Amino acid sequence: MSKRNRLHAICPYFAMFPEQFVEENVRKHSQKGDWVFDPFSGRGTTILQALLMERNAAGMDINPVAYCISGAKADLPTLGWTLRRIADLELTYAEIDYYELERERRSLPPFFGRAFHHETLRQILFLRSQLDWQHGTVDRFIAALVLGSLHGEMDKSSAYFSNQMPRTISLKPAYSLSYWRKHNLWPKKRHVFTMLREKAALRLKGNEGIAKGRVRMGDARHAGETFTSLGNQVKLVVTSPPYLDVTSFEEDQWLRLWFLGNDSAPTYRSISSDDRHRQATTYWDFLAEAWQGLARLMARRSVIVCRLGGKGLSIDDMTEGMEKSLKTAFARGRLLKAPIVSRLKNRQTHSFVPNATGCLFEVDYVFATS
After folding, report:
1. Residues 137, 145 contacting (CB under 8 angstroms)
2. pLDDT digit string (tens) for 26-80?
3. I need a labelling partner for 109 at 20 to 30 A (CA). Which of 27, 142, 288, 362 fits?
4. Does the pLDDT at position 352 exceed 70?
5. Span 105-127, pLDDT tens digits
């Protein structure tokens, strides 16, 4: 695995586009030293790929999981400091009050007792209480490694901590319990600290020359206020906003959000009221406001590349809505080429929820702001 692929795989949960998509557009629409920005940073693909290509990179996301992962990729710690921190955490874990952690484990909803081996869960609970992922570079990186390993398909890989689950999303607790009972599935014991050391060594070895980016947790509509120092400097945006009526990030990532301090059950619209728009009119209003938030950051002759999807929209409707929303912020802007449509294959979750339906196609837009 190449260095860039190892780094992109820090947390390989679902992404709206692969690094090759970013690489192609960064090469085509920017020069070395230019600023590249992603207002919906997700797993940080745009930011890391731009840094690897010797651009300056920044981004933001309102969801803590996305912020943690993209922030980890934008500011990679050294392997030495990371291994030292994991060793210190393991030593502290060995000395803490076992019964206090056990009481906390037993107080969790039934889902957790079937999702993780009891010793694995105690280690996860300890890390949840100790990692200062919002402020510390090393702790954020370790937290991102945990998020990438927190759940996945144990029948295909030993790289995950959980019972059998999709790696992309966290299914609802009641459904998961029913699935495990039906198939008589039990979690395997995982040594979390050992796995984190191995993953850190794999991801960080040889990364010393990679530049640092900037990531903030916040609403895309406030990008201009959040990154005041980048006014009129961003030459390229490569992004993928939440799709229309396709998924709820807050619900689908509830277990990762729990690890970062959220509730021990799915929540809805507590992090963002724009997590899932079901009506096209409110969706286009939201995107128009997001582009307006970007406007003060964009340089002359800049480009916005956006991958979009949605349910209940034709390609023509999507293109019309996308163009109109962009022109509310960039009245003299225009699409540089015809939209590129990609049909989507079956998703991983179909093996867990066979009748699940989602987005049938994605559309790529390239828009010149002036």
Report:
1. no
2. 999 999 999 999 999 999 999 999 999 999 999 999 999 999 999 999 999 999 9
3. 142
4. no
5. 999 999 999 999 999 999 999 99
- SS3 assignment, position 151: coil
Read off the tokens for 3: 């260095």
Please, are residues 245 and 278 in contact by the beta-carbon 8 Å criterion? yes
Which H, E and C letters describe 161-222, residue by residue? Answer: CCCECCCCCCCCHHHHHHHHHHCCCCCCCCCHHHHHHHHHHHHHCCCCCCCCCEEEECCHHH
* Dihedrals phi, psi of 134, to nearest 5 degrees: -75, -25
Average the pLDDT over 205-231 and give the result: 94
- CA 241 remoteness from chain centre: 12
- Cβ(370)–Cβ(303) below 8 Å: no
Which residues contact residue 341 at a Cβ distance below 8 angstroms, ignoring those fewer than 6 apart? 315, 361, 362, 363, 364
- Please report the pLDDT score of residue 176 as a whole number: 97
**Planar angle of CA 278, 248, 307, nearest 5 degrees:** 80
Please say whether the beta carbons of 86 and 197 come within 8 A: yes
What are the chain's domains?
20-41+54-73+215-368 (3.40.50.150), 79-204 (no CATH)
| Residue 260 pLDDT greater than 90, yes or no | yes
CA 360 from chain center: how many Å? 21
